[in-house]
Design brief:
This protein has 369 residues and is of the alpha+beta class. The protein folds into 3 domains: 49-60 and 237-359, Elongation Factor Tu (Ef-tu), domain 3; 62-94 and 203-234, RNA polymerase II/Efflux pump adaptor protein, barrel-sandwich hybrid domain (OB fold (Dihydrolipoamide Acetyltransferase, E2P)); 97-197, Helix Hairpins, CATH 1.10.287. Helix content is 34%, strand content 29%. The protein contains 4 helices and 18 strands. It has helices at residues 2-26, 96-145, 151-197, 248-251; strands at residues 43-59, 62-65, 71-76, 83-84, 89-93, 200-202, 207-212, 219-220, 232-235, 240-247, 259-264, 274-281, 296-303, 313-314, 320-321, 329-344, 350-353, 356-359. Strands 1-10-13-12-11-16 form a 6-stranded antiparallel barrel. A 4-stranded antiparallel beta sheet has the order 2-9-7-4, with no helix packed on it.
Length: 369
């Protein structure tokens, strides 16, 4: 009796489990809860396509200043952040060696000019001697034809005449060489004077000292020797831009003149947003560090002054303080395309079923015929 009961119970359990599995498979119970959606009326809206990138704030114009000559900085008249005018004296390099070179070349010019004068005096003397020798030769030639003098006397006069002419040509060549030496020495003097003048460095443009790499007493290398020492940079901080790297998949959507929304990290806590415009797009991709690096192109976005004018402050001396500094990090959304009046619904009203998106429509408000 007990065995029959156990068998019956076992069969009942098997039937229940099988029925549950079949019902689950057929979807009789245990269906997942449907996705919640928001009902909204489809209507026209503006659709904006953006290309996002990040980069650094930099001045549009920045001049790197390196000395043309080498030496020790004896005077430094500016500090980083100072405003300078074009032609303003920035620093001096010790001029001693260059002054000595000028003195040496000046002496060389004087020596070569003296050589020219000496050679010209010799030319005058030799010219007079050559005239006298020529007269003697002509007279002896006439007498020889008349058979008044011997062959030996005639040949002696002829030899003296030829020698005087040869000496005359030699002195003229000496004068030409001396004059060439004068020109060479004069060129050396001009170069030495230029190098001496280059020991004082003036601002080539007006702007702000955005970077200062040297101090008084340091030695710098001139550009005549490889790249030279970069001593400072002068930038126009009134015109700033953001230089961003855009992926090659997005670069074809960016055009010159596209507007942009810019957020600078330094002002993120103040919820400041700035406007910009694309002013330059690189034609060549940036150099990749590795073979696996993403291909990117540099895009320059100008910060429009009207969007940050309220942040400009007037400092001591009436100088305006620009709110941005070179090297600040910024995020940029470039408006690649904008379409108005596009029929659209909120994303919350769209569901995905069987790997396809669909928007459920409500026909209750349709007009009846």
């Amino acid at each position: 009796m007990n065995n029959k009961v156990l068998i019956s119970l076992f069969v009942a359990v098997v039937v229940l489990v099988g029925g549950f599995a079949l019902g689950k498979k057929q979807g009789w119970w245990g269906k997942p809860k449907g996705a919640e959606v928001t009902a909204a009326t489809a209507g026209p809206a503006s659709i904006v396509e953006k290309v996002s990138a990040s980069g650094k704030v930099q001045p549009e114009t920045e001049v790197k200043i390196s000395p043309d000559v080498s030496g020790e900085i004896t005077e430094l008249y500016v500090q980083e952040g100072d405003s300078v005018k074009k032609g303003q004296l920035l620093l001096r390099i010790r001029p001693d060696n260059y002054q000595a070179a000028v003195s040496q070349q000046t002496a060389m010019v004087g020596t070569q000019r003296a050589n020219v004068g000496q050679a010209q005096a010799q030319l005058e003397q030799q010219t007079a001697n050559a005239r006298q020798t020529e007269l003697t030769y002509r007279r002896q030639a006439s007498l020889f034809k008349q058979k008044v003098i011997s062959q030996a006397d005639y040949e002696a006069a002829q030899a003296a005449y030829n020698a005087s002419q040869e000496q005359l040509r030699a002195i003229r060549a000496q004068i030409t060489a001396a004059q060439s030496n004068v020109r060479s020495a004069q060129a050396g003097l001009t170069e030495a004077q230029k190098n001496l003048n280059k020991t004082t460095i003036y601002a080539p443009v007006s702007g702000t000292i955005s970077k200062l790499n040297v101090k008084k007493g340091e030695r710098v290398v001139g550009t005549s020797q490889m790249a030279g020492t970069e001593i400072m940079r002068i930038a126009n901080l009134n015109n700033m831009e953001v230089r961003v790297s855009v992926n090659e998949n997005d670069i074809i959507r960016v055009q010159l003149g596209d507007s942009a929304d810019i957020e600078v990290d330094s002002y993120s806590t103040q919820s400041e947003k700035f406007k910009g415009i694309v002013t330059a797009i690189a034609n060549t991709a940036k150099d990749a560090l590795t073979a696996e690096s993403v291909t990117e192109f540099e895009v320059r976005v100008r910060l429009l002054p009207d969007s940050y004018r309220h942040l400009i402050k007037t400092g001591p001396g009436g100088h305006s303080t620009v709110p941005f500094r070179p090297g600040m990090t910024a995020s940029v959304d470039i408006i690649a395309d904008r379409q108005s009046g596009v029929l659209s619904v909120p994303l919350a009203a769209v569901t995905t079923r069987s790997d396809s998106a669909a928007a459920k429509t409500d026909d209750s408000n349709r007009g009846r015929s």
